[in-house]
Amino acid sequence: MPTLAVATTNEGKLREIRDLLVGLPVNLRTLRDYSPVETPEETGTTFAENACQKALYYAAATGDLTVAEDSGLEVDAMGGAPGVHSARFGGDASTYPEKFALIYAALRDAGVRTSPARFVCALAVAHAGQVLFQSRGTIEGLIAPAPKGEGGFGYDPIFFCPPFGCTLAEVGSRKGEVSHRGAAFRALREWLEGRTGEAGWPGGSRRDDAAGGVGR
Fold it and tell me: For a Cys staple, 55 with which of 20, 65, 68, 178, CB 3.0–4.6 Å?
């Protein structure tokens, strides 16, 4: 059974990824299951470039098949910002309420109350110095007039999703059905399902205590 290392320590992302991959015949590992490694500098100008950089970096560090993703929010009235800088928008130590305030200030400066926006998730899988798979998911929406909802994480409270008539922080378990990360990881799931039985498939945990399959 192959091992898949998920290159993130973000608990919100990990919860979503585990749910999206549940039942797959892979040993799912996180960065906490390996020796500590420094976070790589993200120098890409696109989500895809950053995802590939991270996947290659962590695959080299873990020695296992590794999936990494880069995701963020693009706001049309801000020229696509914060984009690849979403996590660091307003500074590395800024809270999400502080990031929300910066976005609302930028909308006011642009003379608008809301704006079309989208979440983007680019995903890459790497092993032995090669990127083996890439996918991308997006979800279109609007910046909500004010933050709303207690679920989700990150920018979810200010992202209004028209099909549900509420923000992503309010949709609950339905988020995975429509989210950018859900689309990208469903494509990964299909790819893994078609290859886990192939001869020569990179796998087999290097750890004796590997758990069987992806569970909740």
Answer: 68
